[in-house]
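Summary for the lay section of the report: proteins are chains of building blocks that fold into shapes. Here we show the chain for Amino acid biosynthesis protein and then a coded description of the shape we predicted for it.
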Amino acid sequence: MIIHTLGPEETDSNSAAQYYLRKMPGVNHIVLHGRFEEIINHLNDYPGDYLIIPAAFKSCHVHMDWADFHYAHLDQLKLIDCFRHPLNPLVLIRRLTATNNVAYTHPSTATLLDNYLKFIPGHAVIKYADSKYLAYQKYATTQARFVLTNQQNVQLSSDEKIERTYTPDMVWCVYQII
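The coded shape description reads as follows.
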């Protein structure tokens, strides 16, 4: 059994796939992709394989969330399992010496970020990345003001402050690609 999901290794999707791999005999390989859309656009290339995707899936490239994805691909996917697996702790970081008023995150966590930012003067512009890991990379390279990412991705410096910490559970959906 081959499982396709979002990479890189630092993603919650990989963590969920690793968890599923440990509890399911016959699963022997995880393939990590740069974006869920890479998998979705090539479902015909993976017949018989599996896909693990979070119920909170939202695309930053096309107008699609999990419900849109699920119903749009009923003829290509069979939902075979769901499980609960927590996300790695999330942190909202503020850079005290930011060079721009930008906030990075993944679309699935944008509401958390937006709920925080609406109480901050000088509302930051939210920009999206394909994963929370990549959001942190963009935040670091552009010296942005805010990022919402997994705590494990962070190397906090003296000019950064953790504003909020979140520990959400997630529902993960396992599909067989038909």
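Put simply, here is one thing we learned. The first strand starts at residue 2 and ends at 6.
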